[in-house]
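User:
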Amino acid sequence: IGRADGAERWLKVKGRTSFEDGRAVRMIGSVLDITESKRAQAELAAARDDLADQVATLTRLHELSVRLANSPGLEESLLAVVEALVELHGANSGALSLFDEDTGRLEHGASVGFPDGLLDRVGGVEPGPEAGACGACYAQRERVFVEDTETDPRFAAYREFARAAGFRSVHSTPIFTRTGALLGVLSVQHREPGRPSERAVQIADLCARHAADTIESARSQRAVRESEQRYRSLTQIITSIVWTTDSEGRFVQPQASWSNYTGQPFEEHRGFGWAAALHPDDRDRIRAVWAEACATKTIYATEGRLWHAPSKAYRHFEVRGVPIIDQDDEVREWIGTCIDVEDRTQLE
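Assistant: Predicted structure:
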């Protein structure tokens, strides 16, 4: 009901009618102002809805984490991040752009919701204050809001693109590593003009965090693979034997230089099979030195005689190995070399 001062109040009305000779003669009742109760109910309902939204958001983010943990490649992982971003924003499209050091531009990494071929026609974006939300975000190293692509001067160069893609507002979030390096930009677009809510902004930050971790992990794995390839290439061109074992001294992967020198294929030198290539008179002594090095986690160094397949004879060698210690002070693996010193030994 409306009051004289214009305020509206909720009322609860109850009444009881008295009858005489079958006719209603009076009514007794009460009027109770329940505005505060109604307001409390509305606030409770809103809180329940908000809680339900938060639970749904957390569930979706958890699903994203699981998917990223099991994703086989970077491209699929970045697409999963953009899909989650668009879904949680209720948006019509989203894109992840990565900065390319070679071109100096933001290049396409993953996207959802754009017409086929549209992003290819636009190409990379050169960062700058008037290079749309994405380019400005990277150039300024901070989030950029474009509330209306039709009026914001920063979007003038991309206005036709926005019309073709069917969006009127966009906000872009920078993708930083945990050490502060800027990798790229995560953007989400809406059909209507406007500014995202604080929660939407927080979701964008979380998705950007997922993207940064995923990119860093992929690059680290690639660096490890490249390092392993360089190591394998190195072991193939040097004449000494380069070897790696597990923490207890077992060959767990093929040792190319060992096979080339001793003639033992992997099936024979696997595990502790390498000992068979040692001279019978040297085996116990070398094993004892090895056991001592393993027990003390110190450098392994000794000498002996090793079978040399090309000359069909035992040749003198020196061996040195170093333990690779992990953060828990445990030996993860051993890396070492065997150097042929037969010629020096004969001269001596």
